[in-house]
Amino acid sequence: MLVVVDRGTDKSNLKSRLVTAAPGLADADDTVLGRLLENAQVVKLDHDRFVFHAGDLCQAFLILLDGEVRVQLTSASGREVTLYRIGPGGSCILTTSCLLSNEHYPAEAIAESDVEALAIPVSSFQSALESSQWFRRFVFDGFSSRLTSVIQKIEQIAFTAIDVRLAAVLLDLDRKGVEKITHQDIAVELGTAREVVSRHLKRFESQGWVQLGRGQVSLTDRPQIEALARPSLGD
């Protein structure tokens, strides 16, 4: 559950934080932005807590100020797949879609770190969307870019071999300096079963490409992993 940090947050400081998180708002219309901030609240959520569940009613437009949120889809059988992540300055296309259509959330979002966000009430969101060109551009630019990334993710799941996508995920984890990760975590990223990930990782290990440990995967032959991942990376 999102918790209000301070209903009386200083608006000038809040504007500064918002522009820092989302530089594209630096040239926002001061009147419209002022009204949005006047009615908005800063909310926070602890690491590993749900921002929303599938079936929840959307109650506010959220702009992330700090932290990272993972949006994922869970099947009836319990299999999970990561759709996208939201970082500072970002908004959720599912939230935008639900606010526009008055539908309930079709997926779920989880805080991957402690997060803070600006929560804009539905009435303020709708008013700004109708009256402000810059706010419409901000909302729909974010919607468009996020939708593109989701389509690319679906294309990869549907048309790219699992070992190619696994190699790309391993490179991304290595780039981010992630040291601890389970086979189940990787399976969620790939939208497949844990057993599938384990089987391919054991093959990679037998070929000398990775070293497996408890909750850990280390690259031992990065050039081979890069060569395998190349189709997924678009090289």
Could you give a short description of this structure?
The chain is α+β, with helices and mostly antiparallel strands.
Annotation keywords:
single chain; 235 residues; alpha+beta; Jelly Rolls; Arc Repressor Mutant, subunit A; 2 domains; 4-stranded antiparallel β-sheet; 9 helices; 49% helix; 22% strand
Outline the structure in words.
The structure is a single chain. This protein has helices at about 10-20, 30-40, 95-100, 120-130, 135-160, 160-175, 185-190, 195-205, 220-235, and strands at about 5, 40-45, 50, 60-65, 70-75, 80-85, 110, 115-120, 210-215, 215-220. The chain has 2 domains: about 5-155, Jelly Rolls (Sandwich); about 160-235, Winged helix-like DNA-binding domain superfamily/Winged helix DNA-binding domain (Arc Repressor Mutant, subunit A, Orthogonal Bundle), CATH 1.10.10.10. The radius of gyration is 20 Å and the shape is elongated. The chain has 9 helices and 10 strands. With about 240 residues, the chain is of the alpha+beta class. Helix 4 (about 120-130) packs across helix 5, helix 6 (about 160-175) packs across helix 9 and helix 7 (about 185-190) crosses helix 8 (about 195-205).
CATH superfamily of the largest domain: Jelly Rolls
* Largest sheet, spatial ordering of strands: 1-2-8-4
Distance between the termini: 42 Å
Query: Which fold name fills CATH's third level, the topology of the largest domain?
Result: Jelly Rolls
Shape call = elongated
Radius of gyration equals: 20 Å
Q: Which residues sit in consecutive blocks of at least 5 with pLDDT less than 50?
A: none
Task: Give the averaged pLDDT, no decimals.
Answer: 89
Quantity of strands, as a count: 10
Q: Which sheet architecture does the biggest sheet show?
A: 4 strands, antiparallel
Count of runs of 4 or more consecutive helical residues: 9
Instruction: Tell me the count of domains.
Output: 2
